[in-house]
Amino acid sequence: MPAQLVAVFNQKGGCAKTMTTMQLAGTLGMRGFKVLVVDMDRQGTSMIWSAQAEADDPFPAEVVSLAPLREKMIGELAKRAPLYDLVFIDCPPAIDSPIPWAALNVADLALIPVVPVMDNVWASREAKELALKARQENPALRAYYLASMVRRGRLFDLCLQELRNDADIPMLESYLSLRNAFAESQLYGAVVGSIAKKSPAALEADALADEVLALLAIKPKKPAVRAAQRGKSK
Ligand SMILES: Nc1ncnc2c1ncn2[C@@H]1O[C@H](COP(=O)(O)OP(=O)(O)OP(=O)(O)O)[C@@H](O)[C@H]1O
Ligand SMILES: [Mg+2]
C-alpha cells in the first residue's frame, strides 16, 4: 500500500475524530495531495459532511464509506490506497469494535484526539492500550495524542499536562481549539482553510497538516489556489 495511512481513533465518542480526519484530509487535498477519507463509522458523518459541498466546489478529498465491511475493509483499502498520497481512516467510537484494531494494524500513523477534560483523559488510557498492543503487530506504527476542542483555563491546562506526561504516547505540538469555524465548516462541506484562509482556525489546521506531513516524511506542496474564496465565515 504505497499511500501513507493515518488512523484517527479513540473509543470516546465526540472527541473530534471526524473533525480531525476531515480538516486534515481537506487541508492536504487543497495543497494538491491526492487524499482519501475512509469513513468506518456507520453514523457516516464524514460522508454526510462531504456531501454538503456544492457540485462545482467539492470537498477537497475523496470520501468513501467502507463501514459495512467492518474489519474486512483492509482488503478494499489495499486495492484503493495505491491511488492516493494519503489515506485517513475515520474510526467509530468503540474500542471493542474490530475496526480500530484493523486500522491500527495497517496504519503508519495513529492520531488519538482527546478533549482536555477529565473523562476524555481517563478514556484515552484504553486508546493508548490498543495502540501499544497494535504496535506489537505493526512495529512501524507511531501513535500521538492530539488535543482537540482546546479551551483556556486551569482544568484544561492540567489535563493537557497529564497527557504530555504520558511516557508511552507523545502529544502533537499542534492542536485544534474549540472554535465556531470548525463546526461551521461542516455546514458548507468544506474545511476551515477554504472558507477563510488566514483565520485562526485555518492556521491551526495548517499547522496540524504541516506536523503530520513532517511525521510521515512527506515533502510539503505549495498551497493550491482555490477557484474562489467563499468568505462565508471567520
Ligand atoms: N475544534 C472544534 N471546535 C468546535 N467544534 C468542534 C471541534 N471539534 C469537534 N467539534 C464538534 O464536536 C462534535 C463532535 O466532533 P466529531 O464528530 O468530530 O467527534 P467524533 O469523535 O468523530 O464523534 P463520534 O465518536 O460520534 O464519531 C461535532 O459536533 C463537531 O462539530
Ligand atoms: Mg466521528
TrEMBL record:
Gene3D superfamilies: P-loop containing nucleotide triphosphate hydrolases (3.40.50.300). Pfam families: AAA_31 (PF13614). InterPro entries: AAA_dom, DNA_Partitioning_ATPase, P-loop_NTPase. Residues 4-46 form the AAA domain. This is Chromosome partitioning protein. It comes from Methylomagnum ishizawai. The lineage of its organism: Bacteria, Pseudomonadati, Pseudomonadota, Gammaproteobacteria, Methylococcales.
